[in-house]
């Protein structure tokens, strides 16, 4: 049993093992060895985890505490040194524990191997090439109308033969012990109409040289002429330069048969689809429409300079295999591929390739460490719980498998490890793809990735149907070429098809078309794809992008297979957040039926690359909505935008924004398309994410006609103060003494034309609102009416808040606030002093003794400011007089206030009013003992 040597993975269910199989194979007296091995391995793994944590803590302490202090010449604290020694001691202890538990585990495994010697555990599950379930070479029906590589790996038998190869003998015990996938015979495939085969597009993404193409070669049973780096340049350079397409077919998995199409479209964004409101009768279970499942592998380049091709390929996929070099872990392009996957799909499997490079005695532990590092890298993404599997797509060298044997150059087939484990995981974790419930020919969009002529037939366009459907004799449009052609024929799986629908991988044949005119792009229903020079989009920043997004900056914008430069301006974060908040409240309270807020929805399902999967809501842009001006993209919203709520996982996402995208080169694309903004001018070798934001095109934008339609504004605020109060009233509803009329100053200059400000609303600090009625005097003062009254005091501030639109040539003032309803009151009459009747020279004369002084002047305090100091200087160095402004207005008779006490707010020195000073309401205040307060300081005139 040398080739079937038992390892701990055979006993670990999470690694595909089956401990019960070995319990049953052993004698009852020895069955407990299985549990002992599992227990010892669990103890070893627990000790190993603690060991790694301690090592990490020691590294952090040395790097961030001890090393900086030594570099600065400072002494390391004694307690820090003691902590370090303790941790190192614990590390030595745990290392010994790990070795001890591993030794015990291996001893038990050795006993089990001795007891199982000569027992063939795999006879019942192994499949050879003679198995009746295995397909023959006739199964190489192509999913496209391209030629098939006759020397390629053309059926599932080759996969099994590799597992039986000499190179794979060392790992046969892993693959054979696992259930084999049901492979299809040619007879089975031929009996199924193409329309009954469901196509699932799986993108194979990852850093360059991680073995993506080798994995595709290992898995595929159907190859196109564009598969496996067949171009001369790719073979010369040894890397993938273009998209490659290949496939394998399976029976429809049981767990998919009862799933419905289109009912899980919006699971990634947490919103309900419009389709969810459709009757169940309009939804079809997969088993009612399909009999077979074809998995189309989209092999994407990994080189950093080919990011445009990767973005284009990722937008036609349903799920992702993220291939990672297990010996290197997360690399720069791995991170970028992860970001692209987050935008374009909802299902991802991490494939840790090249595990054969780990020493056999350390392989299990090294794979576990690699998984742990990848799990940490995925934390915070929507794939943080993604399934991971360790494999070797090509034991002994990736280039041999990727290139060798394509054209009969070599008959050598390299060995593999755990490919069956990957296939099992892939099959069990497939999810129902997003598809239109009722595809329409009116919204047919087809992503073309290759174009070539066939003599005597016409030109074939191969690609993926993104939406809608098409049939022979339908007219299709080539938007970039401004021409239309009739569909001559359709093929799927190298067989004639009557219709292609969303998600299908197909070949479309047209006549009288030069294949050299088009390499890749979009074909569509006539009139559905327009040339656009600019667009309004709802966008979200990629949280891994470290730079700021500046309005007016230029970005590389990718739409499908097209990437062009564009200038982008951001705004509207606050308004979208408020809109989303209202929509969320309505979802929680379905009784509310405010249709004006029901604008955040998700529409029909669509293939990968959908803005729905990127978490971008389907918003309708309102040209009449006002938006506060933003200089740049806001990484976080102001705290006053929304009410404080407990943080959720969505709070870590950057906020949504509106963006104006002005393409420097016009592009052909439909509205609702996913766009990806990048900074591809960043240094390729820099360890930084170049993908900046994703977006959904919402509306067309033409700078010439639409620039003035955008209602962006800037908030403005001017502050004045109350200089005089009107008559007091007792408000009827609460008996509060209020003023319905006050007089203000400091908002306008005396030469200001007040007519343009009449009717504007001002506010007090307490929120009382009044409207400006007219000017008051000639010094810029104004009269304000408060319909609900106000208890404001003299000297209190008055706020004039308004907004000014950026595109308004008149720079007019706009206000959204409204006056409150009127609240009436009864006037409080001031006390009337009786006139004294004096007689002079026999003539009676009426004299009003202080009757002209208003009640407010005697009952309320007034405040002013010292403008300058005058008068004699006393021995103590103080001036005896100060000139004060703000206590009186121009209309006041200051002489009637002579003798009123005035107190300095800073020094509490007391003086008295001593007459007017000029004609602007200023007065003289005498200080018997002098005043030391500085000019500009405040004073208070006390009431009587």
UniProtKB/TrEMBL annotation:
Region of interest (Disordered), ranges: 1-28, 127-154, 260-285, 581-601, 815-857
Stretches with biased composition (Low complexity): 267-285
UniProt biased composition (Polar residues): 1-10, 590-601
Organism: Cyclotella atomus
Domain of life: Eukaryota
Protein name: Elongation factor Tu, chloroplastic
Alphabetized SUPFAM superfamilies for the sequence: P-loop containing nucleoside triphosphate hydrolases, Translation proteins, tRNA-binding arm
InterPro entries the record matches: eEFSec_C, eEFSec_III, EF-Tu_GTPase, P-loop_NTPase, Ser-tRNA-synth_1_N, SerRS_1_N_sf, T_Tr_GTP-bd_dom, Transl_B-barrel_sf
Coiled coil residues, start to end: 84-111
């Amino acid at each position: 049993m040398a080739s079937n040597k038992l390892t701990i993975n055979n006993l670990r269910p999470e690694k595909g093992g089956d401990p019960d199989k070995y319990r049953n194979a052993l004698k009852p007296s020895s069955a407990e060895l299985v549990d002992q091995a599992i227990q010892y391995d669990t103890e070893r793994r627990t000790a190993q985890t603690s060991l790694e944590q301690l090592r990490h803590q020691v590294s952090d302490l040395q790097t961030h505490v001890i090393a900086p202090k030594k570099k600065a010449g400072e002494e390391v604290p004694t307690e820090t040194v003691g902590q370090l020694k303790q941790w190192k001691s614990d590390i030595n202890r745990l290392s010994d524990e790990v070795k001890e538990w591993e030794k015990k585990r291996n001893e038990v495994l050795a006993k089990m191997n001795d007891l199982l010697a000569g027992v063939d555990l795999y006879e019942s599950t192994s499949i050879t090439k003679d198995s009746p379930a295995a397909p023959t070479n006739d199964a190489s029906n192509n999913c496209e109308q391209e030629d098939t590589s006759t020397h390629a790996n053309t059926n599932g038998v080759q996969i099994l033969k590799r597992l039986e190869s000499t190179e794979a003998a060392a790992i046969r015990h892993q693959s054979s012990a696992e259930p084999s996938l049901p492979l299809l015979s040619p007879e089975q495939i031929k009996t199924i109409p193409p329309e009954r085969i469901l196509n699932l597009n799986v993108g194979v993404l990852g850093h360059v040289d991680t073995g993506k193409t080798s994995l595709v070669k290992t898995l595929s049973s159907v190859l196109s002429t564009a598969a496996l780096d067949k171009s001369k340049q790719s073979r010369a350079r040894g890397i993938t330069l273009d998209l490659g397409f290949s496939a394998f077919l399976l029976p429809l998995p049981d767990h998919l048969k009862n799933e419905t199409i289109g009912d899980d479209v919006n699971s990634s964004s947490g919103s309900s689809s419009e389709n969810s409101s459709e009757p169940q009768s309009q939804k079809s279970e997969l088993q009612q429409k399909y009999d077979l499942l074809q998995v189309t592998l989209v092999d994407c380049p990994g080189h950093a300079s080919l990011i445009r091709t990767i973005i284009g390929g990722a937008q036609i996929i349903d799920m992702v295999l993220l291939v990672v070099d297990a010996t290197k872990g997360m690399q720069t392009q791995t991170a970028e591929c992860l970001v692209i996957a987050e935008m374009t799909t909802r299902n991802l499997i991490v494939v840790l390739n090249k595990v054969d490079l780990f020493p056999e005695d350390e392989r299990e532990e090294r794979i576990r460490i690699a998984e742990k590092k990848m799990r940490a890298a995925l934390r915070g993404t929507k794939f943080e719980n993604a399934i991971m599997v360790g494999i070797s797509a090509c034991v002994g060298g990736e280039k041999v498998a990727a290139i060798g044997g394509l054209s009969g150059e070599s008959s050598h087939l390299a060995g593999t490890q755990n490919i069956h484990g990957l296939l099992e995981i892939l099959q069990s974790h497939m999810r129902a793809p997003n598809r239109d419930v009722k595809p329409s020919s009116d919204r047919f969009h087809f992503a073309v990735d290759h174009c070539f002529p066939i003599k005597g037939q016409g030109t074939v366009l191969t690609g993926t149907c993104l939406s809608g459907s098409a049939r022979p004799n339908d007219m299709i449009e080539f938007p970039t070429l401004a021409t239309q052609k009739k569909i001559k024929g359709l093929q799927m799986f190298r067989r004639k098809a009557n219709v292609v629908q969303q998600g299908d991988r197909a070949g479309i044949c047209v006549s009288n078309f030069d294949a050299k005119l088009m390499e890749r792009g979009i074909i569509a229903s006539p009139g559905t794809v327009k040339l656009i020079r600019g667009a309004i989009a709802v966008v979200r920043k990629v949280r891994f992008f470290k730079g700021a997004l500046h309005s007016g900056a230029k970005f590389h914008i990718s739409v499908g297979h097209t990437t062009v430069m564009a200038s982008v301006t951001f705004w509207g974060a606050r308004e979208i957040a408020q809109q989303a908040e209202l929509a969320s409240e309505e979802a929680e309270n379905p009784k509310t039926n405010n249709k004006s807020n029901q604008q955040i929805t998700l529409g029909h399902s669509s293939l990968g690359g959908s803005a729905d999967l990127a978490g971008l809501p389907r918003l309708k842009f309102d040209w009449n909505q006002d938006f506060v001006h933003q200089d740049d993209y806001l990484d976080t919203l102001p705290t006053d935008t929304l009410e404080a709520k407990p943080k959720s996982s969505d709070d870590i996402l950057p906020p949504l924004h509106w963006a104006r995208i002005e393409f420097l080169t016009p592009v052909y694309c439909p509205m609702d398309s996913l766009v990806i903004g990048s900074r591809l001018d960043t240094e390729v070798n820099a360890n930084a994410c170049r993908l900046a934001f994703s977006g959904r095109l919402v509306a067309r934008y033409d700078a010439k006609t639409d620039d003035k339609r955008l209602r962006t504004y800037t908030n403005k605020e001017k502050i004045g103060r109350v200089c005089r109060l009107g008559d007091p009233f007792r408000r009827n509803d609460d008996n509060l003494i209020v003023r319905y009329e006050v007089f203000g100053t400091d908002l306008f200059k005396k030469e200001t034309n007040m007519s343009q400000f009449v009717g504007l609303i001002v506010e007090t600090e307490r929120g009382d609102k009044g409207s400006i009625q007219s000017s008051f005097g000639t010094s810029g003062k104004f009269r304000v009416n408060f319909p609900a009254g106000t208890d404001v005091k003299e000297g209190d501030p008055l706020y004039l808040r308004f907004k000014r639109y950026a595109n308004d040539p008149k720079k007019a003032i706009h206000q959204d606030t409204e006056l409150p309803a009127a609240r009436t009151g009864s006037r409080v009459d001031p006390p009337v002093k009786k006139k004294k009747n004096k007689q002079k020279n026999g003539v009676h004369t009426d004299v009003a003794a202080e009757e002209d002084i208003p009640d407010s002047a005697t009952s309320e305090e007034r405040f002013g400011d010292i403008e300058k100091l005058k008068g004699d200087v006393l021995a103590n160095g103080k001036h005896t007089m100060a000139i004060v402004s703000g206590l009186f207005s121009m209309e006041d008779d200051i002489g009637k206030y002579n003798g009123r006490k005035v107190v300095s707010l800073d020094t509490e020195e007391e003086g008295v009013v001593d007459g007017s000073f000029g004609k602007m309401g200023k007065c003289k205040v005498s200080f018997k003992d002098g005043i030391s307060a500085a000019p500009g300081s405040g004073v208070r005139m006390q009431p009587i």
